[in-house]
Design goal:
This protein has 451 residues and is α+β, with helices and mostly antiparallel strands. The protein is 65% helix and 9% strand. The protein has a 5-stranded mixed β-sheet. Helix 5 packs antiparallel against helix 6 and helix 7 packs antiparallel against helix 8. The two termini are 40 Å apart. The protein binds adenosine-5'-diphosphate. Adenosine-5'-diphosphate binds next to helix 11 and helix 12.
Length: 451
């Protein structure tokens, strides 16, 4: 049964909505959808209404009612199911049928009875809604014309109203129909205004959407180009850099005794420069790789990840008498190389940017929220002024020179890119001379929410 109903609906929608060109879902698309939905429900109603109409024909000798009923059903089926008919034609037949039905009712009941007038008004308002704004007044003109016709019909006895229980007088008809005409014209004036507003709004939204999509695409292309450029540059730079380093080494070992102190110093400067450049190139390579991790989501035990960090940095930690504390770190679904990079970069900075006379102390914590994990890494280091909170996440931006604190200005850019790639956010809160807390979030994955 459900299958038949959805097939029936699909057939009507295909004829009335999809066959029309308004694929962009403008106002006309919604007008046609409304019309199709009306048809979907009115057809079964027409069949149900056959029961009282057959009853009237059989017991009250009003066969014409059943005849009219069958004509109406035929027209509705034509509108709904005959393919290759324009939607505008379908709508026109529908509206004219509704008007014809109102006229028939007007003839067979008392012309000035309220229900018939409401029927005319409904037919007019509905037609204004489903047709283009430019036809809005036609439907009121039609009501005006029908009202004048009935006025004459009542005055000059053109139609046999004798079967009516309560026959109207011309004056009565003029009084009620003028109200009807007034309401119809009012609708013709106001309803298009609403549609105009909606139309403007939709086209504005569509234009914005198109512009947004175009700039998003352009940005994506530029980003990809840039990433590719960074990757190629950093990859290709390694070879000449290796040559510089190795020839500098050869120079100092083979000709070192022929050089004076100044010459040896210059070679040391060149070697240090090459080492630093190598680090920058490697960092840049790491940065360009963030958006193309080959690894899939996996369960990552953060306790194990941090213990591993302690082992890796054992020497640095011992030399600085640093303390790194955490309790109850969770196991989460994420991309292991990326989350590792984030923790390593933030912890490395916590160890590096310490106060001269204070041993570093770093606290790591995790807080579970409904849809994401929130991590915080707090240090007791030199701190950062709030005006630099944005700057430090940008590539190659540093607040210190290499003599003070070593570095290339890439670590936090990599951390930010990695966190954002995993769908989270990163930020910090810091007090100069007191310490910094870096926060980042990692959205829970679907598998994690089911765990
Ligand atoms: P790098 O450490 O190589 O300079 P980063 O991108 O990791 O590059 O950091 C950028 C800048 O942010 C650093 O130069 C430093 O001035 C500042 N910074 C980062 N982490 C901290 C921290 N924990 N405490 C104080 N300053 C920090």
């Amino acid at each position: 049964m459900i299958e038949i109903w959805s097939k029936y609906k699909r057939a009507i929608l295909a004829n009335c909505v999809l066959s029309s060109v308004e694929a962009n879902k403008g106002v006309n698309y919604w007008r046609n959808s409304l019309f199709a939905t009306t048809l979907i429900f009115i057809l079964p109603l027409c069949f149900i209404a056959l029961i009282p109409s057959l009853f009237l024909s059989t017991f009250e000798n009003k066969e014409y009612i059943t005849l009219l009923h069958f004509i109406t059903i035929g027209l509705m089926c034509f509108i709904a199911f005959v393919p290759s008919v324009k939607t505008a034609t379908r709508k026109l037949i529908f509206s004219l049928t509704v008007y014809a039905f109102a006229i028939t009712l007007n003839i067979f009941t008392s012309p000035s009875s309220g229900s018939v007038l409401v029927y005319f008004l409904a037919a007019c308002v509905y037609s204004i809604i489903i047709f283009d704004n430019k036809y809005a007044y036609w439907w009121s003109h039609l009501v005006l014309f029908i009202s004048i016709f009935f006025g004459f019909a009542i005055a000059f006895d053109l139609i046999d109203f004798s079967h009516n229980v309560d026959m109207s007088s011309v004056n009565e008809w003029i009084a009620v129909s003028s109200n009807l005409i007034f309401l119809c014209y009012l609708s013709s004036a106001l309803i298009p205004k609403i549609f105009k507003g909606i139309e403007n709004y939709i086209s504005e939204q569509q234009q914005l959407k198109t512009e947004l999509e175009a700039s998003k695409k352009a940005l994506q292309v530029k980003n990809e180009e840039l990433e590719h450029y960074a990757y190629v540059a950093s990859h290709d730079l390694q070879e000449p850099l290796r040559m510089v380093t190795s020839f500098m080494h050869k120079l100092s070992s083979n000709y070192g005794d022929q050089l004076d102190e100044k010459g040896k110093k210059y070679i040391t400067f060149a070697e240090n420069g090459a080492v630093r450049m190598k680090q920058i190139v490697l960092d840049l390579l790491d940065f360009s790789r963030v958006n193309r991790p080959s690894d899939k989501l996996e369960r990552v035990d953060l306790d194990a990840l941090l213990s591993n960090y302690l082992e890796l940095r054992e020497g640095t930690i011992a030399a600085a008498s640093a303390k790194i504390n955490w309790t109850d770190m969770p196991t989460i679904w994420t991309i292991k190389p990326l989350i590792t990079t984030v923790f390593h970069n933030l912890l490395d900075n916590g160890l590096k940017y310490r106060k001269k006379d204070t041993a570093p102390s770093i606290d790591i914590s995790a807080r579970e929220q409904k849809d994401y994990w929130e991590f915080a890494i707090s240090d007791n280091g030199i701190g950062i002024e709030s005006q630099f909170y944005d700057k430090i996440f940008k590539l190659f931006q540093r607040l210190h020179n290499s003599n003070e604190y070593e570095g290339t200005g890439v670590g936090l850019s990599i951390a930010k890119r990695s966190v954002e790639f995993m769908g989270g956010q990163i930020g910090l809160h810091s007090l100069v001379g007191v310490g910094s807390t870096f926060y980042f979030t990692i959205p829970k994955k679907i598998n994690e929410r089911q765990d």
